[in-house]
Specification:
With 124 residues, this protein is mostly helical. Helix content is 49%, strand content 0%.
């Protein structure tokens, strides 16, 4: 194989947004550097959002999408979805959205009254 082709397929020599075979991926906004995304990920309480930050940072550093996703513990498609949301909404797009579902039977006032009436205790 051509030595130049071999060198270009390694992650440290691959242009950002390019996979191992040279195909262009979805461009990622790079207004926040990868190092800053990793710093934010370390301080993030939401583990899913932290994984998304790590994966996007890896992709910005030139890793293939598949490798960046694998290192962050996610699937490549999940990284692609995170990239779309990051490009559209910025950092806020990396957090889970509220899910629809059944509304609570008690409103906030009723839940507060219940907490007052029955404090959490451990019985043995």
């Amino acid at each position: 194989m051509d030595p130049l082709r071999q060198r270009s397929s390694s992650p440290q020599h691959r242009p950002a947004g390019e996979d191992a075979i040279g195909a262009k991926g979805l461009p990622i906004h790079d207004d926040i550097p990868a190092a800053e995304l990793r710093r934010l990920a370390r301080r993030e309480n939401d583990r899913a959002a932290a994984a998304r930050l790590q994966a996007i940072a890896g992709a910005l550093e030139g890793l293939s999408r598949a490798e960046a996703a694998r290192l962050a513990g996610m699937k490549r498609q999940a990284l692609r979805d995170a990239e779309l949301r990051y490009n559209a909404e910025g950092l806020a797009g990396l957090h889970d959205r509220l899910r629809s579902g059944r509304r609570p039977r008690l409103d906030e006032e009723q839940r507060a009254a219940l907490r007052q009436a029955a404090p959490l205790t451990v019985s043995r």
